[in-house]
Write a structure and sequence with these properties.
By secondary structure, the chain is mainly α. The chain contains 13 helices and 2 strands; from the N terminus they run αββαααααααααααα.
Length: 327
């Protein structure tokens, strides 16, 4: 994990203005979510050099928000400046809230990150309560259904904040609008997006009714394969841009997220579904690299290409988080 995060922060394509680095859904976010859990399992409280550098980049961009350029400009396509601004704001808030939660606090920088996020939330129209999201037509993080994914991440970010923050008057209004957006658009979502909502709803129960939660848990359980894993290919109606078939084999990304969602929804660590899924993760970590594999939903990418590892970066970060959560 440290090696991949270091690679990402030094990859020329990830560099951004003011000597900062892009915060990515596929590499930086899973790293931030999972690395602290790995340290906890190992009994190591000290942040790694890679964590410190990542947090420094995020903090710098949050505190200098008005002076920072968007991750992508209009030369990348229509609306890309606005879309990338939103994606960054949500990811910044989630990463900082995750780290603050370890100390049961909320720093001024984290509060500012949330202020940046809420300021971009739609307040009117059919998408009120949600956000515009980066869309390069690349599933699952930058695709046509990814606005909902981004809103689910925002809900997850809020779930890591103190109760006093959630109950403050202005935030209650923002959160109510967000919950309304997630509820109104829930039925049209691929299962993969619903899994994120179920995970977030463990600490934010207003999103799902009891009946919808029960039905979603059953649907996720039905997707579990005989060997204990889940496949991201079965969690949406995906189609690759190069028209190659998508591998339906179980993968670390779908398995980790399913375990996080099911366990957080109330399934005991001793439940057969959880034990079977964790056993799959333990049996399918690559011995030579330490990663869990997952393949692109968009292209049959050459294994040696830079983007080929992005899904595996996500799988690895969330796999660590899932294992820690279910112990």
């Amino acid at each position: 994990m440290d090696e991949r995060q270091a690679w990402w922060m030094n990859w020329p394509k990830a560099k951004r203005d003011h000597d900062t680095v892009c915060v990515s859904c596929h590499t930086a976010l899973p790293y931030a979510m999972g690395r602290a859990s790995l340290r906890e399992m190992m009994g190591d409280r000290a942040e790694t050099q890679q964590e410190q550098q990542m947090l420094a980049y995020v903090t710098k961009r949050v505190n200098g928000w008005v002076d920072m350029e968007p991750f992508y400009g209009e030369k990348s396509g229509p609306r890309k400046s606005a879309e990338s601004r939103v994606a960054e704001a949500v990811l910044n808030a989630l990463i900082l809230a995750r780290y603050d939660s370890l100390n049961q606090t909320m720093s001024p920088t984290t509060k500012k990150a949330f202020d940046n996020m809420w300021a971009l939330q739609f307040t009117t129209g059919e998408n009120r309560g949600g956000w515009e999201w980066l869309n390069f037509h690349y599933a699952p993080w930058e695709g046509d259904t990814s606005s909902y994914y981004g809103a689910a991440l925002a809900e997850l970010a809020v779930s890591y904040t103190p109760k006093s923050y959630k109950k403050s008057p202005g935030i209650k209004t923002n959160l109510s609008a967000l919950n309304g957006y997630l509820q109104r658009n829930y039925e049209a979502q691929p299962l993969l997006n619903k899994v994120i909502v179920l995970w977030a709803s463990s600490r934010m129960p207003a999103v799902l009714t009891k009946d919808k939660k029960r039905a979603l848990i059953a649907e996720i359980e039905q997707k579990q394969q005989p060997d204990g894993g889940w496949s991201v290919a079965t969690m949406g109606n995906w189609k690759r841009r190069d028209n190659t078939p998508i591998d339906t084999h179980e993968d670390g990304y779908a398995t980790a997220l399913s375990l996080l969602a099911l366990h957080s929804s109330g399934l005991s660590k001793n439940a057969p579904q959880i034990k079977h899924g964790v056993a799959w993760l333990m049996a399918n970590q690559e011995a030579d690299t330490g990663k869990w594999a997952a393949l692109s939903l968009n292209k049959d990418r050459p294994p040696a290409s830079d983007p080929a590892l992005f899904m595996s970066d996500a799988a690895t970060g969330f796999a660590v988080l899932a294992i820690q959560a279910t112990q």
